[in-house]
Amino acid sequence: MVQKFVYILFIGLFFFTSLPAQEMAATVSIQSSKVDNQVDPKLFVQLQTQLKDFINQRKWTADVFGTEEKIDCNFFITIESVLSPNVFDAKLSIVSNRPVYNAAYTTGLLNMQDANFSFKYQLGQPIEFNETRVQGADALQSNLSAIMAYYVYIILGLDYDSFAPKAGVPYFEKALNIVNNAPEGAGIYGWKSYDGQRNRYILIDNFTKNGYDQIHDVIYGYYRNGLDAMSEKPAISRIAMLNALISLQEIHEASSLSMAVPILMQGKYAEIVGIFNLADKAMKKQLLTTLSSIDIANINKYKEVLE
User: What pLDDT score was predicted for residue 3?
Assistant: First the structure.
């Protein structure tokens, strides 16, 4: 896969279209078994379709995306309970993937859960989002679209960062705008710094705060200079990936409460082992030292393969 922006330019020059293609190729799944006896089943069928259309049919950037360029992502919603008529408490899982150049597999960009997903929804309700009026007329209704739009911008920020240095910054800033203007009201959580140790405020703070500037270079170094170049320059690519992981270690050690570090490392075990299994002993030793800081939960598994 060539660099995204070169590809976008190619599409713009040679395949003129009257409407720019949307960016997302999202699937939306809703698990409602816990409340099926309390809610009309048509409600969640409609919600699932509307959310998919909201994500995939809305234009989120000014760029033109070809079919191959669309971002593969999944939103999985588990309805936990009915708080009041048409008001639901849920959990949201978000997964986003990215193709690897000259490889037959995709690599994960985002894999996380948001347990603070409460919203109001009823049959016939439109899903609307206005960046200049995020709160909307009804806070709990607007919380649904605000959270979904927030994670679309997080996904876009990560994807763009992985193709060009700091290219994702404008989309992280859009996610920050949602946080700064988020819906407020009873039962709405996750937008404030004090809403637990893992929330939407802390996550976007990690991608926009001055002290975290380095994280954009980490994403670009790991994916573009590392994974994308692996088929042509494996030795140089391993060095780029190791340096990115060392930089991630520095970020983690400067702020152990960072959300971005564990999220970026989520699900990376198999990929890292596959890349570094053929590295020399010195590189493996440095890698294990780094991983003992940023992926301590899996360090014994790494040692079994890499020591």
Answer: 47
Enter the tokens of residue 278: 């053929």
Both 53 and 80 in one domain: the answer is yes
Residue 212 in contact with residue 172, Cβ under 8 Å?
no
Same-domain status, 204 and 217: no
Whether 179 and 42 share a structural domain: yes
**What are the angstrom distances between the C-alpha of 215 and each of 152, 158, 212?**
19, 10, 6
CA angle 285, 290, 291 (to 5 degrees): 95
Integer angstrom CA distances of residue 164 from 73, 96, 205, 294: 20, 18, 21, 24
Residues 251 and 198 occupy one common structural domain: no
Report the chain (307 residues): mean pLDDT per 10 consecutive residues.
43 39 93 96 96 97 92 98 97 97 94 97 95 95 98 98 97 98 96 94 94 93 97 96 97 86 95 96 97 96 96
Mapping DSSP to helix (H, G, I), strand (E, B) and coil, where does residue 144 land? helix
How many domains is the chain partitioned into structurally? Answer: 2
**In this structure, are 150 and 236 located in the same domain?**
no
Q: Structural domain of residue 159, as residue ranges?
A: 1-208
Q: Are residues 82 and 186 in the same domain?
A: yes
For the stretch 96-145, pLDDT in tens is 999 999 998 899 999 999 999 999 999 999 999 999 999 999 999 999 99
231: left (phi over 0), alpha (psi -120 to 50) or beta: alpha
| Long-range contacts from 295-298, C-beta under 8 angstroms, 24+ separation | 295/265, 295/268, 295/269, 298/269
Q: At which of 173, 208, 243 does a domain end?
A: 208
Do 270 and 195 share a structural domain? no
CB-based contact 92:143 (threshold 8 Å): no
* Number of residues in the chain: 307
- For 84, residues 6+ apart whose C-beta sits below 8 A from its C-beta are none
The whole-angstrom separation of Cα 167 and Cα 146 is: 23
